Amino acid sequence: MSFTVMAVGDLVVDEPDPASFFAPARETLGRGDVVIGHIEVPHSTSTAQVSTDVPAPPADPAALSAVAEAGFHVVTLAGNHVYDVGDQGVADTIKYATEAGLTTTGAGLTLDEAR
């Protein structure tokens, strides 16, 4: 029995028509049994900024659907921008990713949630 795991790095889907960026790779991603990507910026409608560094503005939560439709199953959130919009940004990103059908890991409002 074989099992194919695919993983990529940063997914920045805060541009118009995010699905179009995945079109060239959709067929390849579709062959993975578990496809993992890293969501680089929070996906939230919040306007809060709590970063003490160069903050990443939040992306449109609807863009996470393009990630799921491209064939991703799991998204990691443990990056340097995950908290740029504070607790609300983390909560929103997890909520919208889950609603899109993605499993999240690496961030949460508690350590247990992040695990």
Written overview of the protein:
It is a single chain. With 115 residues, the protein is α/β, with parallel strands linked by helices. It has one domain (5-114). It is 29% helix and 17% strand. The protein is built from five helices and four strands. It has helices at residues 19-22, 26-29, 63-69, 86-99, 111-114, and strands at 5-11, 34-39, 74-76, 103-105. It has a four-stranded parallel beta sheet with strand order 1-2-3-4, with helices on one face. Strand 2, helix 3 and strand 3 (74-76) form a beta-alpha-beta unit. The longest helix is centred in the last third of the chain and has 14 residues, at 86-99. It is globular and about 45 Å long. The mean pLDDT is 93.
Biggest pleated sheet: 4 strands, parallel
Uncertain stretches: none
> What is the mean pLDDT?
93
Q: What is the CA-atom radius of gyration, in angstroms? A: 14 Å
Please tag this protein with its features.
alpha/beta; single chain; four-stranded parallel β-sheet; 115 residues; 5 helices
Break the fold down into its secondary structure elements and pairings.
Elements: E1 5-11, H1 19-22, H2 26-29, E2 34-39, H3 63-69, E3 74-76, H4 86-99, E4 103-105, H5 111-114
Parallel strand pairs: 1-2, 2-3, 3-4
What is the structure about, briefly put?
Helices cover 29% and strands 17% of the residues.
